[in-house]
Specification:
alpha/beta, 4-stranded mixed beta sheet, 7-stranded mixed beta sheet, 37% helix, binds pyridoxal-5'-phosphate
Amino acid sequence: MATETLNAPPAPEASAIPSLEELWMPFTANRAYKRAPRLLVAAKDMYYTDAAGRQVLDGTAGLWCVNAGHCRDEITAAIREQAGVMDYAPPFQMGHPLAFELAQHLSQMLPAGIDHVFFGNSGSEAVDTALKIALAYWQAKGQPQRTRLIGRARGYHGVGFGGMSVGGIATNTKQFSAQTLPLVDHLPATHDLAKNAFSRGQPAHGAEFADALEELVAKHGDTIAAVIVEPVAGSTGVLVPPKGYLDRLRAICDKHGILLIFDEVITGFGRLGASFAAEKFGVTPDMMTLAKGLTNAAVPMGAVCLRREIYDAVINASASGIEFFHGYTYSGHPLAAAAGLATLEIYRSERLFERAASLESYWADAVHSLRGRRNVIDCRNIGIVAGIELEARPGAVGARGFETFLKCFELGVMVRSTADTIALSPPLIVEKPQIDRMFETVADALERVE
Ligand SMILES: Cc1ncc(COP(=O)(O)O)c(C=O)c1O
């Protein structure tokens, strides 16, 4: 497995760098970025090349998505070949073999009982699709009163109106707050710094946070359709579920007939040292949302995976014709399907999920080596994910985290900052010396950032 970049392309001519003005960049401080841009121009295995020709070690697998490392030849070849054979096929009332094949391969990897797949193009679409499937399911089951959706504080489920509404991040809704979905409640976040700081793996305290669902049931009776949670919250700072929490959530959902959705957009495909979080934690939801690692991010794709019973209920509720009024022009796109098949084959043949599991303890040691460093108030880890929480500067939440991210990039390592937590989640092909370099760089940056 090659992990070094031997033939990085030369830095582009200054004239090759385009005008930055016209593009409105997503989730970006546009003005600051355009004053001091960070442009990436190439990638291979564990490294990006920036516009100055510098190699940057990828500590985040892009955006938690390039699990097999960058520009993998097998995936590139599969996309290229499919692009020459059939660029596109309509997914409504038509089909093409690769989408079916990918659904079949995927279903063979899923937890027992989850064996049907609906494709979209992103995590956000997967989440909105899953929420709509939940509502359609309850209609089909003759319980149309089940319309309430439960998310969790500090949850991130993408940016569609559904995902934004069940998500629990105030900054993501405040510009649009009048228009979030009306029938939504939130469980409390599971993060308990006072009791669980510097936990290695799953924290000991907090299973009881799940009991808030009982309170919501007491309030809303049998109107709750589904609960959606990230098994490990990623975007709000790597919040690892307390021991017993997910089991308890599952039990309460079962008791009251509520569907449980795991948003595995980040946790899927080996990130936790198992195929999925469901496997890692031994808790099987009714639906799972996937994206990112599904195609190694080479072509956008998302998926909802669900129990056969849910599929059967919705399909059989309709006497004939279209059973589910939902779908995307690019559902199961041929290039994405080709990339997905090649990606799953790499995961299988290189045993990357097992590889991640075998690195977990080394990774944990590296993460916790930062304990005691300046401003560090917590280190969290699970699988090949880390969160290093820094004390926020008074009146400037997020500033220290962002400056640390910038400093690491300057030092040649890509990390991510979410508020004041530094998150790391490298490709699963990462080598131990590269893990060392990532955490040495974060340590170095922490010394340099006030
Ligand atoms: C858990 C989770 N769900 C959904 C999404 C949204 O995915 P996308 O950006 O592909 O729409 C993300 C993105 O980071 C995510 O982490």
